[in-house]
Amino acid sequence: MKATRKPRARPGREEDAPGFAARRIAADMLDGVLRRRRALDELLDSTTELATLEERDRALARALVGTVLRRLGTLRHLLWPLLERGLPPQAPRVETALLLGAAQILFLDVPDHAAVDLSVRLVQADRYAARYAGLANAVLRRLARDGKAALTPLDMPMLDTPDWLMARWTAAYGGEPAHAIAAANGVEPALDLTVKSDPEIWAAKLDGRVLPTGSVRTIAHGAVTALPGFAEGAWWVQDAAAALPVHLLGDVRGRRVADLCAAPGGKTAQLAAGGGLVTAVDRAPARMKRLGENLARLSLAAELVCADAAAWTTEQHFDAVLLDAPCSSTGTIRRHPDVPWLKSEADIAKLAGLQRRLIDRAVMLLKPGGTLVYCTCSLEPEENERIVADFLARQPSMRRAPLTAADVFGCGAFINRQGELRTLPCQLSDADSRFSGLDGFYAAKLVKG
Ligand SMILES: C[S@@+](CC[C@H](N)C(=O)[O-])C[C@H]1O[C@@H](n2cnc3c(N)ncnc32)[C@H](O)[C@@H]1O
After folding, report:
1. Nearest to residue 92, comparing CAs of 66, 125, 128, 137?
2. Whose CA is nearest to atom 24 of ligand 1?
C-alpha cells in the first residue's frame, strides 16, 4: 500500500469539527465488534463517552454503527474495487473510516461532503492510519460521485449475510424464505413493548399500534426511558416474538413457575404480571441485577436465584418451567446486527451441548403433569427442533403438546408441522416496512407424564 498525498491541512484539531465525536465513538465501537469481537450491546453499555454526546449525536453514533453492521457485505463489496492495493493491515482505522463514510453516503441522510470530511479526519486522528488520509479522501469522493446508483444491481440481502448462514437458512427453510429472512435483517426494526394492560391506550399514547399478538409497536425517537409509561412501569421492551413463549404456558395465576436463563427478565415480567409465583434463575450476576431493577420499575415480584441452571437443584417442584436457552441468536439479527459477524458454526455446536444439559435439568424440576416450554431466538434447527426431538427420545416421560393457531393469537403461520412455534424475521409484514417483521423464535410445549 502506497502512502498517498495528504489532503489540504485544516486549521484546528480533528476532534473539534462538529459531528466528529459521534463518528469517533462509532468508529471505536465498530472496531470493538469487527476487530476485538465484542458484542455490540456490551459496547453500548460500556462506552461511557456516549453519555457525553447530545441526544441527537448519540442517536447518530448508534445509527452509524447499526448501518455499517447491517450493510457490511455491501459496503465492502463496493469499497474493495476502489482500493487498488487493498487495505493497509497495520492501520485498521482506515477500513473503519471508509465503512463509516460509505454508509453515510449511501444509506444515511448526511451530506456527502460532511461524510467524506469526517471520515478523512478519523483517519488523520489515528497515528497508524494518518498517512492514508489522501487515499480515504479519494475513495470516498469516488463513491460519492457514483452515488446510490451503484446499489441498484446488487443483491444486498445476499451480500450482507455470511455464506454459511445463508446456506443454513436455505437448507432449513428453502431459498426464497432464506432470502426474505436476509432482507428482513437489513431493516432497522421498530420498538416493541409488552404492556401490563390497556394496549390500545398505550398504543395511542406512544403513537404506535397494537399487533395481532398483543404487543405494542412504535417507532421511537430518542431514549426509551423518556417515553410515556416508562417511569411508571406500564410496559417493558420485548420483541413481539419473544413475548409468545410465555403465552404457551396458558394461565399461570397462582402456579409455581421456574424461569430458567431469565435475565434481563422480559419473560419473568410476563409471568409475574400474569400472577405466576416465579423463581427466576440466571448465572450472570450483572444481568440478574438488571432483572431485579427491571422488576422493581414494573412493581413486579419474583424470587431471584443467581446460579448455573444446568446444575441448580431445589427441594420444590414446579407446575411449569420456561427454559429460554442461551443460543446463537440468529433470529435477532434485525436488532443485533453484530451477530452474523461474531458467531460461527462452531458456536452452534457448542451451544447445542449446553442446551441439551439445560433441558435435561429443566425436566427434573417439573411436577408430574407439569408443562415445560423450551425456547430460543435462534433460527438453527440444531438448537431447536433437534434439541427437542432428541430430548423426547431420551425422556419417555415427556410428550409434545402440539400447538395450534389458537395458542398464538390466530397466527397459524407461526406454527410448524410438528406443532411448534417457529417465527421468521420476514413474517408479520406491513405495507409500512418500518412496522414489519419480528424476531425468529422457536418454542416447543412439552408435558410430563
Ligand atoms: C436468551 S437470554 C434470556 C432472555 C430472558 N429469558 C428474557 O426473556 O429476558 C439467555 C440467558 O441465559 C443465561 N445463561 C447462559 N447460560 C446459563 C446457565 N448455564 N445457567 C443459567 N443461565 C444461563 C445468560 O446469562 C442470559 O441471560
Report:
1. 128
2. 261
Beta strands 303-306 and 398-400, pairing class: unpaired
Does the beta carbon of 176 sit less than 6 angstroms from any atom of ligand 1? Answer: no
Q: What angle do CA 63, 66, 68 make, to 5 degrees?
A: 105
Which residue from 193, 194, 261, 312 has its CB within 8 A of the most atoms of ligand 1, so it is best to mutate?
261
CB distance 266 to ligand 1 below 6 Å? yes
Tens of pLDDT, residue by residue, the chain (449 residues):
334 444 444 445 666 788 999 999 999 999 999 999 999 999 999 999 999 999 899 999 999 999 999 999 999 999 999 998 899 999 999 999 999 999 999 999 999 999 999 999 999 999 999 999 999 999 999 999 988 999 999 999 999 999 999 999 999 999 999 999 999 999 999 999 999 999 999 999 999 999 999 999 999 888 899 999 999 999 999 999 999 999 999 999 999 999 999 999 999 999 999 999 999 999 999 999 999 999 999 999 999 999 999 999 999 999 999 999 999 999 999 999 999 999 999 999 999 999 999 999 999 999 999 999 999 999 999 999 999 999 999 999 999 999 999 999 999 999 999 999 999 999 999 988 889 999 999 999 999 98
Are 312 and 362 spatial neighbours (Cβ–Cβ below 8 Å)?
Answer: no
> Among residues 261, 327, 375, 377, which one is catalytic?
377
Q: Is 310 in the pocket of ligand 1 (CB under 6 A)?
A: yes
Judge if the beta carbon of residue 308 lies within 6 A of ligand 1: yes
CA pair distance 256, 276, nearest whole angstrom: 6
Q: How far apart are the first and last CA of the chain?
A: 68
Residue 321 CA, ligand 1 centroid: distance in Å: 14
* Cβ of 326 below 6 Å from ligand 1: yes
CA 157 – CA 153 distance, rounded (Å): 12
411 given a catalytic annotation = no
Distance between Cα 286 and ligand 1 center (Å): 12
- Contact between 322 and 271 under an 8 Å Cβ cutoff? The reply is yes
Atom 12 of ligand 1 has which residue's CA nearest to it?
Answer: 261
Chain Cα centroid distance, residue 69: 12
What's the 301 CA to ligand 1 centre distance in angstroms?
Answer: 19
**Separation of 326 CA from ligand 1 center, angstroms?**
5
Q: How far apart are CA 321 and CA 246, in angstroms?
A: 10
